[in-house]
From TrEMBL:
SUPFAM superfamilies from the UniProt entry: DNA breaking-rejoining enzymes (SSF56349)
Descriptive protein name: Phage integrase family protein
Annotated source species: Orientia tsutsugamushi str. TA716
Coiled-coil ranges from the UniProt annotation: none
Phylogenetic classification of the source organism: Bacteria, Pseudomonadati, Pseudomonadota, Alphaproteobacteria, Rickettsiales
GO MF term set: DNA binding
Any one biological process term the GO annotation gives: DNA integration
């Protein structure tokens, strides 16, 4: 927030990310800027959509509803959000382990002679 507030006082533009080349006056297609930032940071093979996917997955791990995640990603169709929601594998394994324990307990306590 400090950076944004400082930019507000020093910039003549009404936009947070102004652009001298776009018709609107603000950054519209960040691909070139994104690649330049990644190159300077030494980051390879990171796309902007990877950040969206990460945000959606973290929100899901924080138990946000699919509708909330959909709103954060500005999706008109909530079903679109499913593809961004990549579960945290440790959490998936934990729930699979719990389910396996429940199945094992049921199998051990099941008496076949009571069903005949």
């Amino acid at each position: 927030m400090e950076i944004l507030q400082a930019r507000k006082f020093t910039s003549e533009s009404k936009w947070v990310l102004p652009s001298a080349t776009s018709a609107s006056g603000h950054l519209e297609r960040p691909n070139n800027s994104w690649h330049m930032v990644c190159k300077k940071a030494g980051i390879k093979n990171l796309r902007i959509h990877d950040l969206r996917r990460t945000l959606a997955s973290c929100m899901s791990d924080a138990v946000a509803s699919q509708r909330t995640i959909s709103t954060a990603l500005n999706h008109m169709n909530p079903n679109s959000t499913m593809y961004y929601n990549i579960p945290y594998l440790k959490l998936v394994r934990e729930y699979m382990s719990k389910a396996t324990q429940i199945i094992s307990e049921c199998a051990r306590s099941y008496n076949i002679y009571n069903t005949i």
